[in-house]
Fold FMN phosphatase YigB (HAD superfamily).
Amino acid sequence: MIDVLGNGSAPRLVVFDLDGTLYPREAYAEQVLAVIGRMFVELRGATPDQAGAKVAELREAMRTNWSGTSTTSFVRANGFDVGQWLGYRETHLSIADGLEPDENVERELARLREVVPIALLTNNTRASMKAILDKVGVGGFTEVFSAEDTGHTPKPDPGAFRVVLDRFGVAAGDVWSVGDRVDIDIDPLRRLGGSGIAVDGPADLGAAVDHLIGLARPA
């Protein structure tokens, strides 16, 4: 089921999230939790029990408030800087290994890009993003934006969306975001004046695309 959080404007650009949106969140969460626990031990000298407690804290946040839980925000709140987190994640995490091709995702994105430009905005590194897209079998974005592009303003910082808006030269009020976490993928753009559609995962993309095409091509 989708949740439309919009101003009713016809989209001039649609920005997609990656993790949990173009592939199921279940393929992401446990891998990331394991890597974060390892990072606390190796980079902060935490004991396994201490690291386990941090992982349990993040797992509970994911369970009770998936929409508002950002792993990047979590590690930053625990003293790791963005570069440190990205470097460690790049070395120790390979989400793509657990993914399968999904023809439906590419089909739905292809339907939408016939009527409006589409972009990808993710907190993944460029290499990780490419590996995931290749494994799922998704391409054709007008532009992609990774952690290297947003620097010290990753989602949920609205600055991540400002990077996208500046690159395309469009007003936020004409842009829609599609993602599985309202607080992370939708609200930062809404704070700039844009709109969004929250999905529970790739199975909801068809409904989201139908809605956006309807706005772009009013009856």
